[in-house]
Write a structure and sequence with these properties.
Keywords: Membrane, Transmembrane, Transmembrane helix. By secondary structure, this protein is mostly helical. It has one domain. 74% of the residues lie in helices and 0% in strands. It has 17 helices and no strands. The radius of gyration is 23 Å and the shape is globular. The relative contact order is 0.14. The C terminus is likely disordered.
Length: 417
C-alpha cells in the first residue's frame, strides 16, 4: 500500500493553494466590486431577484445567480468563450469527489474518509465560494485518506451510479443551458444546482439499481467491471473538454491572427499571444480597479483564477499519488539506489507535468485532468490485478508485498478487491 504522506508535507502546498484561491478569487472579486456589476446584469435580465421569497435564502442565492446570469446570459460577451471552456474543463475536476466517495472501504470509520464521503457538501461549498478555495482543501483530505493509499476499486453498481450522476446532474443540464440560439434566461438555469443534482442522481440511480439487481448478482459484483465504467466516465470528460476547447479557444485563436497571415503566423500568434491572454488574468496578481471592472471582466477574472488554482491543485495531487505508487512498485528492484530513485522521480514528474501543460493548451485543462486520473486508475487496477493473481496462486498478502516492496510494515492491511 503506498505511503500516506505526513501532514507536515501535505498541508503546506494545499493550504497555500486554498489561500491563493481565497485571495485571488474571493478577495479580488469583493475589492473590485465585481458582484455589483453582476447584480446590474441580473436586474436588467428577465430573471427575478427573489427566487424563494425567503429573505435569508435569497441573500445567499442571489449573488450566485447574478454571477451565472452575467457569465452565461449573453453569448456575445467577451467572457463567454472563457466560461464555456471552463464549464467543460471543470467537469473533470468535479468528477473526483463523486468518484472517490464510492471507493471500497469509504464507509470505514476514519475522519479523512468520512469527510470525503460527502461530495454534495463539498460541491455546495465550491459552487458558492469557488472551487479555487474549496477543492484544494478536499485534495488535502484526499491525500491523507487511507482509501486513496490502498488503491481500492469501485464496484460495478457504484461506478454506474457515478457515471449516471455526472451525466444527469452536470452534463445534460449544461448542454441544455448552452444550446445555441436560445431565448434569454427567464429563470435561473438548473445547471447552477449541479452539485446537488449530481449527488441526487447518483444516489437515486444507485438505489434503483440495487433494488432491481438480484442479491446474488450484487454479491458476485467486483471492481473489475467497475473499472471499465469508471474509465468511460473519465473518457466522457476528456471528449467534452476537447470539443469545447477546440471550438471556443483553438479555432478562434487560429482565425484571429493578424493579417497578413500564414500557417506559421497563425500558430505563433495562438501559442504566444492568444492562449496567454485566454488563461492569464490581464491584471496579473493585482486587484482589478473597481472603476474599470465590468461584468464581463469580472467573470473572466474569476474564471481564469479558478482554472489556475483548481487545476494546479488537482494536478499536484494526481502526480504526487502516482509518484507514491511508482515508489511502492519499484522499491524492491535489485540495484535500486536512492540517487537513481531521486532522478527517476524528477524525470517522471517533469515528463508528466510537461504532458499536462501541452495537453491543456491543445485540448483543454479538463482533458489533461481526465487523462491524468484515467492513467492513475489504470495503475491502481494493475496493482489490484497483481494482488488478485497472488491470492489465486496462494501467495499471502505479506509475501506479495515483501516481494514487491521489501518494506512491509506489519500494521498495513491490503484489501483484495
Amino acid at each position: 500500500m503506498p505511503t500516506i504522506p505526513p501532514l507536515r508535507y501535505v498541508a503546506p502546498p494545499f493550504s497555500l493553494l486554498a489561500l491563493a484561491g481565497f485571495y485571488f478569487i474571493v478577495v479580488h472579486m469583493v475589492a473590485s466590486k465585481a458582484p455589483l456589476r453582476f447584480l446590474e446584469v441580473h436586474k436588467a435580465s428577465q430573471v427575478p431577484l427573489a427566487l424563494t421569497h425567503i429573505s435569508l435564502l435569497d441573500k445567499m442565492l442571489t449573488p450566485l445567480v447574478s454571477f451565472f446570469i452575467a457569465a452565461f446570459g449573453d453569448p456575445s460577451s467577451p467572457a463567454y468563450p472563457t466560461t464555456i471552456d471552463f464549464v467543460w474543463s471543470f467537469g473533470s475536476a468535479i468528477q473526483l469527489p463523486l468518484i472517490e466517495a464510492q471507493r471500497v472501504g469509504m464507509d470505514a470509520p476514519s475522519m479523512s474518509r468520512s469527510v470525503l464521503a460527502w461530495p454534495m457538501i463539498w460541491g455546495v461549498l465550491y459552487q458558492r465560494v469557488s472551487g479555487g478555495w474549496i477543492l484544494p482543501l478536499w485534495l488535502l483530505a484526499f491525500m491523507r485518506s487511507k482509501t486513496r493509499a490502498a488503491g481500492a476499486g469501485i464496484g460495478k453498481i457504484e461506478a454506474e451510479s457515478v457515471f449516471a450522476g455526472w451525466w444527469l446532474g452536470h452534463t445534460i443540464p449544461a448542454l441544455a443551458m448552452l444550446v445555441p440560439g436560445q431565448s434569454p434566461f427567464t429563470r435561473p438555469p438548473i445547471w447552477i444546482a449541479f452539485p446537488i443534482l449530481m449527488s441526487l442522481a447518483q444516489h437515486g440511480y444507485y438505489c434503483a439499481r440495487r433494488s432491481l439487481c438480484p442479491a446474488s448478482t450484487r454479491n458476485n459484483d467486483n471492481t473489475r467491471s467497475g473499472y471499465v465504467i469508471l474509465q468511460l466516465t473519465y473518457l466522457s470528460a476528456f471528449v467534452l473538454s476537447c470539443i469545447a476547447h477546440i471550438h471556443s479557444v483553438i479555432i478562434p485563436g487560429l482565425l484571429s491572427a493578424p493579417a497578413p497571415s500564414s500557417i506559421p503566423t497563425h500558430l505563433h500568434y495562438l501559442l504566444t499571444t492568444y492562449l496567454y491572454n485566454f488563461f492569464i488574468p490581464p491584471t496579473g496578481l493585482r486587484i482589478p480597479s473597481p472603476e474599470s471592472t465590468t461584468a464581463a471582466s469580472g467573470v473572466r477574472h474569476f474564471v481564469q483564477w479558478d482554472v489556475l488554482v483548481v487545476f494546479a491543485a488537482v494536478w499536484l495531487a494526481g502526480i504526487w499519488d502516482l509518484v507514491l505508487r511508482r515508489h511502492d512498485r519499484d522499491a524492491s528492484k535489485k540495484g535500486h539506489e536512492g540517487k537513481n530513485c531521486v532522478w527517476a522521480v524528477v524525470g517522471f514528474v517533469g515528463g508528466v507535468t510537461a504532458s499536462l501543460f501541452v495537453t491543456a493548451l491543445a485540448l483543454g485543462p479538463g482533458a489533461a485532468t481526465a487523462g491524468l486520473y484515467a492513467y492513475r486508475e489504470s495503475v491502481m487496477e494493475e496493482a489490484r490485478a497483481r494482488r488478485r493473481t497472488d491470492a489465486q496462486n496462494g501467495v499471502t498478502a505479506s509475501d506479495s508485498l515483501v516481494d514487491e516492496t521489501s518494506r512491509l510494515n506489519p500494521d498495513r492491511v491490503v484489501r483484495y478487491d
